[in-house]
Prior knowledge:
Layout: E1 5-9, H1 17-28, E2 32-34, H2 53-58, E3 61-62, H3 75-90, E4 95-99, H4 103-110, H5 121-146, H6 148-151, H7 159-172, E5 190-197, H8 200-216, H9 219-226, H10 240-247, H11 253-275, E6 281-285, H12 290-302
Parallel strand pairs: 1-4, 1-5, 2-3, 2-4, 5-6
Helix pairs in contact: 3-4, 5-7, 8-11, 9-10, 10-11
Amino acid sequence: MPRPLLLVVTGPTASGKSALAIQLARILGCHIVSADSRQIYRGIPIVTAAPSPDELAAAPHHFIACRNLTEPYSAAAYADDVEKLLPQLWANNPIAIMCGGSMMYIDAVINGLDTLPPIPESTRLRVLEHYNTHGTEGLRSWLRQLDPEYYDRVDLNNHARLIHAIEVSLEAGMPYSSLLNRPKKERPYDVLMVAPQWPRHALFERINARVDAMVGGGLEEEARSVFHLRHLNSLNTVGLKEMFAYFDGMLSRETAISRIAKNTRVYAKKQLTWMRKYTNLHWLDSNGDMVAATLQLLQAHRQ
Length: 303
């Protein structure tokens, strides 16, 4: 009996993966499991480019706007929740689609979480003191020395991830990235990964257009509605951080919007760097019929 299949539709931000996943779900009659670490939260649909009501109605979605901003969540918790959900979905259809660009979430599901050393309080305090003294730039310099490979792909504006990588590197006595590249753990299902591939200039144009659409769609008002919660990790994301800086008087509105587009392009490059490590990822030509190409890959997989 064929094993169930998880069809992973990933890709950098603004690459069209959500639209592709919905088209495929309608043809295949299956559900979509979101793999977006911010779309999981309620109250910020504009900045996270969450599926619209019409898109949600076009195909069943999971892990969209299902948690409050104040609820902590992690890749580990996500992997546990997905592992509980998938057998239920496969009971009615041998295929389920996972769609998103949060690569740590996808990794946690298809490869399993890596075993990381526990971090003692002394190490946490040491790294925190360094951050309080030298700021984010100090964390970047330290991480570059400890783990240049992870430095090249991490979001350098996300101080929480920088701190975590430094803590693990110090405690393990080896680069954090080396602990993330262990042999893939076996899963009781098959995985097929696809991603839209755009020329760099075309992807950046799509990102710029998305940012303009977000601003026109009420991004500033959405950011103001959660400004009082800006200390939460759930709001530590491109689009909100720049708007919060504008509200605090640190940036002009024009500069904030320009910075959102720039930082989104940087984030997309980080996503692409991460995705290149997947030797089984099938890149789909954006100038071709990506739906047909994916269906052909599915057919070949079944044979």
